[in-house]
């Protein structure tokens, strides 16, 4: 098992937008909009989901964990919400939105100066 290191994790998280951009940018809509059938997701759907996660999931949850509030319950996460909201957005716009949100979230997390011995 690899020991957890926040800086290593942030380095991975920082690379994700560029990896997705290299993987998806410029592909034909047939590759981006189709899924495997049933409840499977297309690459477009996955991008919508990742944007939703950046907006309302992992950073708000970290904020709850680090807060001094007694109630540490998470707000339920609707992983399907953005699929309809962003269905008309082109992949290029979604890639840019994801990069913007991920960059901002990592900057916010770094600003919290979390590390060994961190106390809320």
TrEMBL record:
Domain DinB-like, first and last residues per copy: 13-111
SUPFAM superfamilies recorded: DinB/YfiT-like putative metalloenzymes (SSF109854)
Protein's UniProt name: DinB family protein
Protein species of origin: Dinghuibacter silviterrae
């Amino acid at each position: 098992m690899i020991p957890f290191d926040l800086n290593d994790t942030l380095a991975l998280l920082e690379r994700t937008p560029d990896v997705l951009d290299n993987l998806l940018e410029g592909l034909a809509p047939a590759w981006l909009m189709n899924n495997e059938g049933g409840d499977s997701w297309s690459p477009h759907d996955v991008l919508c989901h990742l944007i939703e996660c950046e907006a309302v999931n992992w950073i708000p949850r970290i904020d709850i964990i680090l807060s001094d509030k007694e109630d540490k319950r998470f707000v339920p996460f609707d992983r399907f919400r953005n699929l309809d909201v962003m269905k008309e957005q082109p992949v290029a716009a979604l890639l840019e939105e994801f990069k913007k949100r991920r960059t901002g979230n990592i900057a916010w997390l770094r600003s919290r100066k979390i590390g060994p011995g961190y106390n809320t």
